[in-house]
Amino acid sequence: MFRRVVFVQLAALLVAAGLATAAGASRPPSFSLPEQASEVAPGVFFLGQTVQDGVVLEGYAYARFAEPTEVGRRGNAKPPWAKGGSGGGEETDASTCYSFIAKGAKWNTPEGYLFNPENNGNIGLVTESGIDAAFGVWEAAAGANIEIVGGGKKDTGLVADTSSTDGKNEIYFASITDAGVLGYTIVWSTRSRGRFVGQIVESDMVIDDDDWSWYTDGAAIGSGIDFWGVFTHEAGHWVGMGHTKTTDLCNEQTMYPYISSGDSSKRSLEVGDAAGISALYN
Q1: Which residues pair with 162 in a beta bridge?
Q2: Measured distance CA(138)–CA(17) in Å, rounded
Q3: How many other C-beta atoms are found inside a 10 Å radius of the C-beta of residue 275?
Q4: Of 236 and 6, which is predicted with more confidence?
Q5: Are 16 and 27 in contact (CB under 8 A)?
């Protein structure tokens, strides 16, 4: 079986970065998708269009689901318009297990990020060193510069943008009210039509801090969810990757839309993840 892309450097940085839990800090508002969100594929929601500097942008929200019995698996999670590998049918090559958020949409200009490590006492978000390491896993697999500027800034007033852009790329914890959702990443990119390919202009990430028992040490602990398996998946959306299909061929990929309790295998990149990010940025 294909050897996973090395995760040792990321794990070491995450441990070194440590976890930050602040007592008494003000919590961000709860988060749910707006009424206008339209589910165009399981776990993929179209948020509509906005105009920035005279350019039409389209927003999509990608959900990462836990896979308890009551939620279950909800069919093909790869929209037909999400370009990428086939990842299904009679194919046996898992390197086809990837898709993009839009036709060629990626970061083309350097962008930084803001983050808020405060949470409900369940787990803290790592420092900028840990975040940079997670993005670095994708950049290493791409073999190209993904243009995510390292060293984010702390900010407590973060709100994910579901109707228009605000010029900020945000990472924070909140209570997600949508059932079964571990986290959302919202990506705004230029339209992809015909010969025109998309460009990502803004990404936001929200991780739930109310409904799940997280673990971070890599051990499969009871019914807990591996935080870094979720974060690495969301970082994939941030840089332009979509979900894989929900086939047995693709279920080991980090960009598979579901993660089971006690599964620590989604922290690093599998063959389809690596093939997809390389194809996108080269």
Answers
A1: none
A2: 19
A3: 22
A4: 236
A5: no
Rg (alpha carbons) of the chain, rounded to whole number? 17
Six-digit token string for 71: 């939620």
* Residue 38 to residue 106: CA distance in whole angstroms: 23
| Per-residue 3-state assignment (H helix, E strand, C coil) for the chain | CCCCCCCHHHHHHHHHHCCCCCCCCCCCCCECCCCCCEEEECCEEEEEEEEECCEEEEEEEEEEEECCCCCCCCCCCCCCCCCECCCCCCCCCHHHCCEECCCCCECCCCECCEEECCCCCCCCCCCHHHHHHHHHHHHHHHCCCCCECCCCEECCCCCCCCCCCCCCCEEEEECECCCCEEEEEEEEEECCCCCCCCEEEEEEEEEECCCCCEECCCCCCCCCEEHHHHHHHHHHHHCCECCCCCCHHHCCCCCCCEECCCCCCCCCCCHHHHHHHHHHHC
Residues 201 and 165: beta-carbon distance below 8 Å: yes
Higher pLDDT, 24 or 93: 93
Q: How far is CA 31 from CA 28, 128, 216, in A?
A: 9, 23, 23
pLDDT, one tens digit per residue, over 46-75 is 999 999 888 899 999 999 988 754 444 455
Task: Compute the distance between CA of residue 217 and CA of residue 214 in angstroms, rounded to an integer.
Answer: 10
Give dist(CA 65, CA 115) in Å, integer.
Answer: 22
Return the residue matching tokens 């243009």. Answer: 147
> Which among 88, 101, 102, 140 has a CA at the least distance from the CA of 251?
88
Can you give the pTM of this predicted structure? 0.83
d(CA 175, CA 232): 20
CA distance 200 to 236: 13
